[in-house]
Amino acid sequence: MRFAVIGAGMAGILSAIKLDQAGLTDFTVYEKGDRVGGTWRENTYPGLACDVPSHLYSYSFALTPEWSHRYSPGPEICGYFDRIARDYDVVRYMRFGEEVTACTYADGRWQLETASGHRDEVDAVIAATGVLHHPRYPDIEGLDSFAGACFHSSRWDHRVNVDGARVGIIGTGSTAVQMVGALTERVGKLTLFQRTAQWVMPQENPPYTDEEKASFRAEPEHLTTLHSNLADAFGIFANAVVDSSSPEIKMIEDACLANLEDNVRDPELREALRPTYRAACKRLIISPNFYDAIQQPNAELVTDSIVRVEPEGVRTRDGRLHELDVLVLATGFKANAFMRPMRITGSRGITLEQAWTPRPVAYLSISIPDFPNFFMLNGPNGPVGNFSLIEVAELQFGYIMQLIDRLQSGGYREISADPAATDALEAERTKAAEKTVWVTGCKSWYLDDRGIPAVWPWPFERFRTEMRAPNFEHFQLR
Ligand code: NAP
Q: What residue ranges line ligand 1, CB within 6 angstroms?
């Protein structure tokens, strides 16, 4: 079989390594960027880090003793993926600067087209295109009129010098909070425009000592133990968020509340930072330094809503003009875009747009009915909010390999999710979502157009169990 992998981020590198190791070496990884890294290549904002511990946010087969911190910085994470791709010698399968624009299923094969006009024909496609990568720009009057530098957080403009400048940030998600922590000590004035307050979980971020790293190097089984202990600890969080009445979610709420009460001194600021919904309803913010940073003399939290952007800065409802040199839009991503705007046409001429109207659905977030031999990693409705996406992708890839094996051993040409099985799972999923913390009274990118979380609503163990072996009765094989 010939394969195409789309994307050379975390999941695309994983796919390349696993296909290569399985001896399925007839494949190409198409990557629109000029190097590997995905989200870690695209996001370069100051303070970028991963709030999943580094020894967990690693491939299980490529643990490393070298992580600098419990939560290592973004460039180090990007360097890790780059090194693993080279160490496993899979860069040779990659074509950079090739954006796949269309995938069309015809006569039992997928025809691919790229923006440069390159064409390929493959038996199976693995879409490793990521989840949060299409910037969501805010619809604010006058945004284009701003005279200073203005960019989305994921398009950081490094030509702009922020040192000593007046910098405004719109948004208070994980991205903005990481930026605030890193920028206050550099900028002249930092203004954070908050529409909704966030719960913040405190988290220390100690560096690993030379002795610790030496012990990891000397005894690699320490790394394996650490990886599995962190997975167990993270599992507590993963299971808490899917049960809004669990004692664990109460513990998370108490820890966030204590963080606010104990660490924000000024009562007025404390009230401004106090959310009015339950902790972890929005993606929980994990930060070692946000409250400290926002209390610096050169930082200001603005809660009056934004009326418009003017050439000199941001005008808020109280009539104040917040003069700025730089305006950063930390306003998030279009979470339901997934592989789009790629034009994907399955069997019988059905387009992805048709299949995903009114919203994205996939069987176990991997396979879409009528899109044979088209497999997704971290597709719709998966455990994006509750676990390390690396383990999710590894488990999904193991499952996809079993689907491919079945094609090869059974003498079949096509496999795709059965529509009835997909509908039944989706109905069960939306029902289970009613118990989760994501529906307890906040807005977030987890929620679909109906207000139902577009994520995995069960304990992570169920995901592991589902991924162990496909139920082939839930697939159509031809
Ligand atoms: P986000 O969580 O979607 O936050 C967007 C922020 O922008 C929110 O505070 C939102 O306010 C605000 N906003 C949007 N439109 C606005 C407008 N028109 N006016 C004023 N405010 C507006 O985006 P993000 O911070 O980029 O994070 C997205 C996700 O990426 C995270 O949830 C996380 O999954 C991932 N991420 C992970 C890490 C990590 O360490 N692993 C780091 C960064 C990001 P409202 O709350 O009022 O809507």
A: 49-52, 132, 138, 140, 153, 170-176, 178, 195-196, 283, 306, 330-333, 443, 445
Gap from CA of 177 to ligand 1 centroid (Å) = 9
Q: Which pairing describes strands 166-170 and 189-193: parallel, antiparallel, or unpaired?
A: parallel
Residue 203 structure tokens: 């988290």
Taking the centre of ligand 1 as the mean of its atom positions, its distance from the CA of residue 282, in whole angstroms, is: 9
Distance (Å) from CA 291 to ligand 1 centroid: 17
The helix/strand/coil state of 123 is coil
Distances (CA, A) of 113 to 4, 261, 374: 11, 55, 15
- Residue 195 Cα: closest atom of ligand 1: 47
Q: What is the mean pLDDT of the chain?
A: 97
Tens digits of residue pLDDT in 65-106: 999 999 999 999 999 999 999 999 999 999 999 999 999 999
Atom 21 of ligand 1: nearest residue by CA position? 171
3-state secondary structure of 150: strand
Tens-digit pLDDT profile for residues 369-385:
999 999 999 999 999 87
pLDDT of residue 385: 77
Q: In the structure encoding, which two tokens stand for residue 68, read together?
A: 């600098």
Among protein residues, the one whose CA lies closest to atom 28 of ligand 1: 332
Using an 8 Å Cβ cutoff, are 274 and 243 in contact?
A: no
CB-CB contact of 71 with 50 (8 Å) = yes
Which is nearest to 125 in space by CA: 247, 213, 29? 29
Q: What is the number of the ligand 1 atom nearest to the C-alpha of 177?
A: 25
DSSP β-bridge partners for residue 301: 192
Q: Which residue has the tokens 């993606």?
A: 283
- Tell me if residue 270 falls in helix, strand or coil: helix
Q: Is residue 204 over pLDDT 80?
A: yes
DSSP, collapsed to helix, strand or coil, labels residue 113 as strand
What distance in angstroms lies between residue 166's CA and the mean position of ligand 1's atoms? 21
